[in-house]
Specification:
The protein is mainly alpha-helical. It is 63% helix and 5% strand. Helix 30 packs antiparallel against helix 31.
């Protein structure tokens, strides 16, 4: 039987194509069930929708009466009865509101703007008027209808932005004016109307409309226009180029971050809390709302935050940011706000070199970027208010969700956060969760056993999930049998001390123990030893090293842990562990494993990462001066990389882990591992713009090498940290560390290290615009390399001199140095050096008007770079090749080279993309 329910306007229902007329309470009941089709709706919610505050004496029986009437109209099999409420069985496309929301979700998930526009258009055509039109239910009007209307308007605005960016202006003014007549105080609609008027050459009319909305806001709300409207007005007055609120094709700056974790499977309950959170949803002019979700470990704080965030995702069209702050992580290392801010700024399109140094400056830039956006920021597992404050937006329209085991009293008192405290699931909610996981029949077959499980799990969702996983594994066992086993596990736990802040943890540990006892000996050992890993996730090779097992056996053990619900299903091949379970595994390891075994597991893990990191580093930069490593210990299987692309992908995936490895090694007094890991990370961090992380890790390396008396390694760490300081514009700090490196190299008589340091100093001076001093330092580097017989270093110095003389306009001298450098690079077989020097020669020839020589040098450099796979230098060479073609009047060849350079720079997210785009635009205009 086909059912069609249309809610987005007057209620329309058809059964097998035949219209069915609904009125009164059955109609309201159908609407409430349809808007949640496929999900159980609680009796309380149904009764409130049907009768409001004037509830009948027996709400359950009264709801049942209306349900029976509804079943006669739509079919008895369509409405399922559950202990906690009722569920409408309907496919998503049978209910227009569900179909509408699904289309919006698909639109928000695609990166193709044409597909997004098509999906939004399809969704908007489903609307026929006001949702639930003609229905008498205050609950529907105040809650569900308001949310649907907001999502509709947000979708209209987003489609308008796409039209504006693509210069599709036909009909936009009429459409926006029609909506404004119905929602005259919605500033975001006015912003778009003003934008399209400006884009179509009607700036005077746009200014008149601004005065209209300004007066209306003042008269009706006693308020001034919000920041988006004011910014638009300023642009109109300044007669700048037309500006749209969102630029879908403008490059990285318009990225819409979608960072929410995967939706929680089979989320149940929390209806009142969800309604409370829904109640503070606003629009672009609403004050910033901060919701602080508190409660014990394992109580479901993250699940609630993520579920609600997905539920309201379309209220925040400018994106969603998410960060796990690890405030109560078993590692004991909460994430510093600076690290989180750098991640947010990157997601918001800020290039790494544009991120300022210092927490205050980063927070200021972050708030400026969010000032005209409506974003949802989810800050999970916060330690305290101080960790959260720098991550708060400073303007209206956005919302923040914070979860924490701390009460965050200071955040409530000072920033006005709204506290929500989670209690354990009610018995009805726990029943519902088990029904979803195990099926109604199995759960209701022995109610006493089910109640025993719920009681033992203390209403904690995590514990219930573990029990359900165990029951799914053993479909032949009754819940009574499983309950008996669970009760029997308690006696084994007396030796464990409490490790969380609420009484239910005792029973949760019992549940964990019950699953743990089912593991094979090897898998149980792996679970315990995983506690030495710094997190947040682990790869199979790293887990194999920790356990000292072959990789195949480790994968089998990981699958067993997933089946026992003690680790999570892998995402991109990596496994995560809930922080409560990580704490439990650490507790078990301390009780059951000898100190020497845990220490050996830690050493194997560090060996795995140091040796893997070293291999990656040498692939990323083969000419790097190698360091000495001790052979990996038994049971350690370092990663094997096919090429430098594979190596870089590993560095990116392991980025937070590798930072944690440096910190963990230093904390454990394993200084040799700490500085070598920091050394291995340098180039990967540099190429991805993680210069603050470079500074953090190299500071650790400096201290570690100082304690070890490793003067050469200490000098290298000073050079590496100076590189990061130089890129960030902290030139005084860079010079300080390079001076320290120079002193160390001179002290140990390392002339090559001394030469390299002079070359580094020269680079900082170049960045400061002090070219004459830079040349002096580079000459010192060249002389030292010549004396030491370091032909690689001598060739690099000669190429540096070639480049500096070109910058000074001394192109003939640049050719002399460059040709000498090229001969040396060829003699030692340094392909990277040859490419860089051919590029320098090409630039010098270009400025001297030697078109043939310039193009030949640059093409040779390009061929070498493409063979070596260095896309950044390839892009630089292509830029210079385009310059040479352009000067010679070969516009098509110039355009082709610049286009390739722009694509590479854009893919690498480099600031040079903007400069190349300007060249392309110039040649198009000129052409």
């Amino acid at each position: 039987m086909r059912l069609e329910i249309r809610l987005l306007g007057p209620l329309e229902v058809a059964v097998d194509g035949e219209p069915v007329r609904f009125t009164g309470r059955p109609a309201v009941l159908l609407l409430v069930l349809a808007i949640s089709a496929g999900r159980i709706v609680s009796l309380d919610r149904l009764a409130t929708a049907l009768w409001g505050e004037a509830l009948p004496d027996n709400p359950r029986a009264s709801v049942q009466t209306v349900v029976n009437r509804l079943r006669r109209l739509v079919g008895a099999d369509r409405i399922e009865t559950h202990p906690t409420g009722y569920l409408l069985r309907a496919e998503p496309d049978e209910v227009d509101a569900q179909h509408f929301l699904n289309l919006l979700h698909l639109a928000s998930s695609t990166s193709d703007t044409l597909e997004e526009h098509s999906l939004l258009t399809e969704a908007l055509t489903l609307w026929r008027g006001t949702p639930f039109e003609g229905m008498r239910s205050a609950w529907l009007a105040d809650s569900e209808a308001r949310q649907l209307v907001e999502r509709y308007l947000t979708a209209v605005e987003r489609r308008s932005d796409l039209d504006l960016a693509a210069e599709r202006h036909d009909g936009l003014v009429v459409q926006l004016q029609s909506l404004i007549s119905r929602y005259p105080l919605r500033e975001s609609l006015w912003v778009r109307l003003l934008s399209v008027l400006d884009a179509t050459g009607r700036r005077a009319e746009a200014l008149e409309h601004y005065e209209t909305v300004r007066r209306r806001l003042a008269d009706e709300l006693g308020a001034d226009p919000g920041p988006q409207l004011r910014a638009m007005h300023t642009r109109l007055l300044a007669e700048e180029a037309p500006m749209t609120p969102v630029q879908p094709d403008a490059g990285r700056e318009r990225l819409l971050p979608r960072q929410l974790p995967i939706e929680v499977a089979e989320f149940v309950g929390r209806e009142k809390l969800l309604a409370t959170m829904d109640g503070v949803l606003g629009d672009a002019t609403s004050p910033l709302v901060i919701t602080a979700i508190g409660g014990a470990a394992g109580i479901g704080k993250t699940a609630l935050a993520v579920h609600w965030a997905h539920r309201v995702v379309h209220w925040f069209p400018d994106g969603q940011l998410y960060a796990n702050l690890r405030g109560f992580d078993p590692s004991g290392s909460p994430r510093p706000p600076e690290e989180v801010l750098r991640g947010f700024l990157d997601a918001l399109g800020v290039r790494p070199q544009q991120i300022p140094a210092g927490l205050e400056a980063q927070a200021g830039l972050y708030r400026s970027l969010l000032a005209t956006r409506r974003m949802l920021v989810v800050l999970d597992n916060a330690r305290d208010a101080e960790q959260v404050r720098p991550l708060l937006p400073g303007s209206p329209g956005s919302q923040v969700l914070v979860t924490s085991r701390d009460r965050l009293t200071s955040l409530v008192a000072v920033e006005g956060a709204r506290p929500l405290v989670l209690d354990t699931l009610s018995t009805e909610e726990a029943w519902q969760l088990l029904e979803r996981r195990l099926g109604i029949q199995r759960v209701t077959a022995d109610p006493q056993a089910t109640e025993g499980i719920i009681r033992r799990c203390a209403g904690l969702p995590l514990a219930l999930a573990v029990v359900a996983a165990r029951a799914i594994e053993r479909p032949e066992s009754s819940l009574a049998t499983l309950t008996g086993e669970l009760d029997g596990a308690r006696a084994d736990l007396d030796a464990f001390a409490a490790f969380a802040d609420s009484d239910p943890v005792i029973d949760v540990r019992s549940v964990f123990s019950w699953s743990y006892r089912t593991l094979s000996a090897a898998t149980a050992r792996l679970f315990r030893l995983l506690s030495v890993h710094p997190g947040p996730d682990v790869s199979p090779p790293a887990a194999a090293a920790i356990a000292g097992l072959p990789l195949a056996e480790t994968r089998t053990a990981l699958r067993e842990l997933i089946a026992a619900h003690l680790i999570n299903e892998p995402v991109a091949g990596r496994y995560t562990v809930h922080d409560l379970l990580r704490a439990y595994s650490a507790e078990l390891a301390e009780q059951l494993d000898a100190d020497i075994e845990r220490r050996d597991a830690l050493l194997r893990m560090l060996d795995h990462y140091v040796h893997s990191g070293y291999s990656a580093a040498m692939l990323l930069y083969p000419q790097r001066q190698p360091i000495t490593l001790s052979p990996p210990g038994p049971g350690v299987y370092p990663e094997e990389f096919a090429d430098h692309h594979h190596a870089m992908s590993w560095c990116v995936a392991e980025h937070p882990v590798l930072l944690g490895v440096v910190e963990r090694a230093a904390a454990e007094g394993l200084d040799a591992h700490a500085w070598r890991m920091a050394w291995a990370l340098t180039d990967a961090l540099d190429r991805h713009g993680h210069w603050q992380d470079m500074i953090t890790t190299q500071l650790v390396a400096i201290q570690a090498t100082r304690r070890l008396g490793e003067h050469s390694a200490q000098a290298q760490a000073h050079r590496d940290i100076a590189r990061a300081y130089g890129i960030l514009g902290r030139y005084d700090d860079a010079h300080t560390h390079l001076a320290m490196a120079l002193e160390l190299y001179i002290g140990i008589g390392d002339r090559i290290g001394e030469a390299n340091t002079h070359r580094n100093i020269s680079r900082i001076l170049e960045l400061q615009g002090r070219l004459s001093e830079a040349i002096g330092q580079m000459r010192q580097a060249m002389d030292l390399c010549h004396t030491a017989g370091d032909r690689v270093g001598q060739a690099r110095a000669l190429n540096g001199l070639s480049w500096y003389h070109s910058m000074l306009g001394e192109y003939e001298q640049a050719l002399v140095y460059g040709e000498h450098a090229l001969r040396l690079h060829r003699a030692v077989g340094n392909l990277y050096g040859q490419a860089a020097t051919l590029d320098s020669l090409g630039v010098a020839h270009h400025h001297l008007g030697h078109r043939g020589e310039a193009v030949a040098c640059l093409r040779a450099a390009l061929e070498l770079m493409r063979d070596r796979g260095d896309r950044y230098i390839e892009a630089e060479v292509l830029t210079h090749l385009g310059d040479a073609h352009d000067k010679a009047g070969a516009a098509d060849a110039a355009r082709a080279a610049w286009q390739q350079a722009w694509e590479l720079f854009t893919a690498l997210d480099r600031a040079e993309a903007t400069e190349v785009r300007a060249k392309l635009d110039g040649i198009r205009v000129g052409g």
